[in-house]
Amino acid sequence: MRRKAGLVLLALAVFFAALSPLLRWYAFPRLAKIPANQYQDMVLEAKDATLLDYGTMEARKVSKVTIVQTLKGNVEASEKIEKTAGKDVVVWDGLSYVVGPDGKMVSKIPERYIFDAHTQEPVHATGEMVDGDPVKRQGIEFKWPFLTEKRDYEYFDAQARITAPIHYKGTQNFRGVEVYYFEQTIPWTKVGFPRTMPVEGITPESVAKTGTTRWYTTVRKFWVEPLTGAPVYGEEIHKEELRGGTLLGDRDKVTAFAGHVKMREDYIVSTVDLVKSNRTLVLLLTSYLPWGFLALGLLLLALSLYLEARSRRPGDPEPTKDTEPEPVSA
């Protein structure tokens, strides 16, 4: 019985020891993915900002500018693209909606972001766009890969429609979560006007006829939880200018917007809580279960060897042998 139990334990030890690397290196890359139907929103604020009054074409100080960002998973579009892409695809329909202190719209920019559900690499397909303009993204946007590394990444800037490095600047602790801090600087770049302008009757085409151009620069900052690849906090030091043309009269340039954009406190709290819960799920697949199964396999192996040794322990009585009966003589 001991030998049979030892063999069973040995088989289980081999099973759990083999399951450990399979779970980490085979199952995790296939199980960890962004759900196609995910919806999330974020509110950011720039307090004491500078904003252009398009009625007077004068820049003025305002108490606050609010940016509402939404990302909505488009399941129907993702399923359609998956048929030809041959991989799990997520389609996010995004909107960045900016309002001034009076609640009136400053700008709204729609966006469609298509990416691999597992790696977050962009997937190029019909419909990929920013503000109605077709784009072909290179690099990540919004979301870092699972198991983010301490290195620079390529990050797509939707305003300038360009990809530039976003640099790893170090590891920090943000509200009890270990995060990687990344920073990207986009130098002054000429960009187009939004398709939806804040003043009725003014269009990008009518502004272009005046010879006035729009320029933009930003310093983008993200604090990213590395296991999930999710930013727990973000900031931008954002500046926009209008330059030249008859629209500005005799002025060379005027500030269209300048402000330090930060996440609103209530969204910071909810984001940190969400990332903490998702972090536990990733740890389960990358650390807790693989190491637990390996430890269990070693324990079962030790137990099976112990039982085998017990079954062969010297000093145990030899089993009695049946002997033939001696013949009886008269």
Write up what this structure looks like.
The protein is α+β, with helices and mostly antiparallel strands and 330 residues long. It is elongated and about 130 Å long.
What layout of secondary structure does this protein have?
Blueprint: H1 2-31, E1 39-53, E2 58-73, H2 75-85, E3 89-99, E4 105-116, E5 129-130, E6 133-134, E7 153-157, E8 162-174, E9 177-191, H3 204-209, E10 213-225, E11 230-243, E12 253-263, H4 265-311
Antiparallel strand pairs: 1-2, 1-12, 2-3, 3-4, 4-5, 5-6, 7-8, 8-9, 9-10, 10-11, 11-12
Compute the separation of the termini in Å.
46 Å
Detail the poorly predicted runs. none
Q: Count the strands? A: 12
Query: How do the helices and strands follow one another from N- to C-terminus?
Result: HEEHEEEEEEEHEEEH
| Strand residue content | 35-45%
Which terms summarize this structure?
12 strands, alpha+beta, 330 residues, 12-stranded antiparallel sheet
